[in-house]
Amino acid sequence: MDRIGLRDALSFDVLGPVRVRRGRSEIEPGTRQQRLILALLLIRAGDAVSVAELVDLLWESDPPPSAVNVVHRHVGLLRRRFEPGLPTRAAGSVLIRDGAEYRLRIDGESLDLLRFRRLVAEAAKSSGEPAVALYRDALALWRDRVASDLRTGDRVHPDFVAVDRERFGAVRAATDAALRAGCAHLVLPAIRLAAEYEPLDEALQAGLLQALAADGRRVEALAAYADIEHRLAAELGIRPGFDLRAARDRLLGHDGPAEGSGSGSVGPALAGSAAPRDGTKAGADRPAFVRPGAPPGGTTAGSWTSAGPEPSRPVRAEPPAQLPADHPFFIGRRAAVAAAEELLAADPQATALLVDGMPGVGKTTFAVHLAHRLAARYPGGQLHADLRGFDAGGSVMTPAEALRGFLWSLGVAPAAIPAEPPAQASLYRSILAERRTLILLDNCRDWGQIRDLLPGPGGSLVIATSRRRIAGGGVPAVAHPIHLDLLTEVESRELLVRRLGEAATADRAAVNEIIARCGRLPLALALVATRSVGRAALGLPVVAAELAEADGRLTGFGEAHADLEAVFSWSYRALTPAAARLFRLLPLHPTGELSTEAAAALGGLSLRAARDLLAELGAQLLVQPGDGRWRMHDLVRAYAVELGEEHDGTAERDAVERVHDDDEPSAYATDSPPARRIRDAPHRHR
Question: Low complexity composition bias: which ranges (predicted)?
Answer without folding.
Answer: 297-309
